[in-house]
Design goal:
The structure is a single chain. Strand 19 and strand 20 form a beta hairpin. This protein has about 475 residues and is α/β, with parallel strands linked by helices. The chain is about 30% helix and about 20% strand. Strands 7, 8, 9, 10, 11, 14, 15, 16 and 18 form a nine-stranded mixed sheet that branches. A six-stranded mixed sheet has the order 1-6-5-2-4-3, covered by helices on one side. The chain has a three-stranded mixed sheet with strand order 12-13-17. The chain has twelve helices and 20 strands. The chain has two domains: about 140 residues, Leucine Aminopeptidase, subunit E, domain 1, CATH 3.40.220; about 325 residues, Zn peptidases (Aminopeptidase), CATH 3.40.630.10. Helix 4 runs parallel beside helix 7 and helix 6 runs antiparallel to helix 8. Belongs to the peptidase M17 family. One of its GO terms (cellular component) is cytoplasm. Its EC number is 3.4.11.1, 3.4.11.10. Pfam families: Peptidase_M17, Peptidase_M17_N. InterPro entries: Leucine_aapep/pepB, Macro_dom-like, Peptidase_M17_C, Peptidase_M17_leu_NH2_pept, Peptidase_M17_N.
């Protein structure tokens, strides 16, 4: 969908979107469309309400969109996404979004981004397409009095573009989204958006002593890929390190999953978040230096698969007793975190991972679990997520939980084997490999990266964390 700012409305023909905040007295139509009125008994701008009316004189279709009294950024974005997702019949060649004077920059950004996200469909491999709209032929015009509207519109497009790309990476099937696919995606994105990418294959990873990373992938015929991305703007304020868990499919290994395996294509949700964020950060030319590592493997089963009760090494030199081969994500993250800390001087380090069912059990599907001992960093991440509707909430990182991961035979074990505090003990395991980095945070997105919503009949990607990271870096 092409977007543009429109100044003259006199010759516009098509669908016109008129968003309104709730007004119990009466909705006043825009001065440019005085002939189109609606009774307050029919439409008062209540949240999630819509009213459609056709102008018999010129054939324009008007969509009155209710936003409620004090809508959040996410609520506005969802309201507009609902239009393109569910009212596609009214999006032909020309669409006008008319922003009133009492609507600010954040609303414009959320509205444009939401409309673009609503064009996404899951039928990537359907042999017969029932597309009602060719979105490439649709032009979205925006009318607003905001002086920097052009800049806001461009930013909204880039945010939506990165999130749409993240949708694809998570939603496409695991026989397509392999470790090599993600490595090639990172290389191509780097060339397009302006960051450097290097990739370690199995042979190179062996030379680098990435033992824990390699152990997880040794039961799969698919080549593991250790992806390193470096974004280096000329005037960087600070250096942020990112790590994203990239298990492109998780069978559980020899501790094979007994339920829910059909959804395990989403186990690279952390990788998708970091990849999408790298695209967005570079696309917006953010003045922040970023180094991102995405370890990508498939946790499969054959006669080479790593074993429960086995002891493996790691890049840090610390040994790990494998209690459960389904606690694999923390193993590849361990090597990625240590590699980043030892080889790059980052001011802040954040990892994203679909790591534990425990996080889902604690927060459900509305909030991610946040872990850090740095109170300033905790607050910054929380506030950034709240602003864009990607909520995170901290769980304790008390050292008393570290003893749960003690091993009799190795330096640490990868799973405590108990039905409690699973997200916390997983975070303590990761902390063991951060070399005491003073500003590290772990975000467990197991419940927020992939789930149910009104926009599809099956579980699908959310791109959780992409916009959070942008907002976080804007405030550094």
């Amino acid at each position: 969908m092409k977007t543009q700012q429109l100044v003259d409305l006199s010759s516009f023909k098509g669908t016109i979107i008129l968003p309104f905040f709730e007004n119990e007295n009466a909705i006043q139509s825009r001065s440019e469309f005085q002939n189109i009125q609606v009774s307050k008994t029919i439409f008062s701008g209540k949240k999630d309400s819509q009213y459609l009316v056709a102008d018999s004189e010129n054939g324009n279709i008007f969509i009155f969109l209710g936003l409620g009294k004090n809508p959040t950024y996410k609520e506005i974005k969802t309201a507009f996404r609902r239009l393109t997702a569910k009212q596609a019949d009214f999006f032909k060649e020309n669409v006008l979004l008319h922003i009133a004077e009492d609507m600010d920059e954040q609303m414009l950004e959320a509205a444009v981004s939401g409309l673009l996200l609503g064009t996404y469909r899951l039928g990537h491999y359907k042999s017969s397409s029932d597309k009602k709209v060719d979105w490439a032929k649709v032009t979205l015009s925006i009318f607003t009095n905001l002086t920097n509207a052009e800049k806001i519109i461009a930013k909204a497009q880039k945010i939506a573009g990165a999130q749409l790309e993240t949708f694809h990476l998570v939603d496409l099937p695991p026989n397509k989204i392999t470790p090599i696919f993600l490595a090639e995606w990172a290389e191509n994105a780097g060339k397009q958006y302006g960051f450097k990418t290097k990739v370690f294959d199995r042979k190179k990873a062996e030379k680098e002593n990435l033992h824990a990373f390699l152990a997880v992938g040794q039961g799969s015929q698919r080549e593991p890929q250790f992806i390193i991305m470096e974004y280096r703007p000329k005037q960087a304020k600070t250096h942020v390190g990112l790590v994203g868990k990239g298990v492109t499919f998780d069978t559980g290994g020899l501790n094979i999953k007994t339920q829910g395996m059909v959804h395990m294509k989403c186990d690279m949700g952390g990788a998708a978040t970091v990849l999408g964020a790298m695209q967005l950060i570079a696309d917006l030319e953010m003045p922040v230096q970023v180094t991102a590592i995405v370890p990508c493997v498939e946790n499969a089963i054959d006669n080479q698969a790593y074993l429960p009760s086995g002891v493996i090494n790691s890049y840090s030199g610390k040994t790990i007793e494998v209690i459960d081969t389904d606690a694999e994500g923390r193993l590849i993250l361990a090597d990625a975190l240590t590699y980043l800390v030892k080889n790059y001087q980052t001011d802040t380090l954040i990892d994203f991972a679909t790591l534990t069912g425990s996080a889902v059990g604690t927060f459900g599907y509305e909030c991610a679990a946040l872990f850090s001992k740095n109170e300033t960093l905790l607050k910054q991440i929380q506030e950034s997520g709240e602003k864009v509707g990607e909520r995170v909430w901290p769980l304790p990182m008390w050292d008393v939980y570290q003893s749960e991961m003690d091993s009799e035979i190795a330096d640490i074990k990868n799973y405590h084997g108990k039905p409690h505090a699973g997200a916390i003990t997983a975070a303590k395991f990761l902390e063991f490999f951060t070399e005491n980095h003073p500003s590290w945070a772990h975000i467990d997105i197991a419940g927020t990266a992939f789930g149910d919503s009104e926009f599809a009949k099956t579980k699908h990607a959310t791109a959780f964390g992409v916009h959070l990271l942008l907002k976080f870096m804007e405030n550094l």
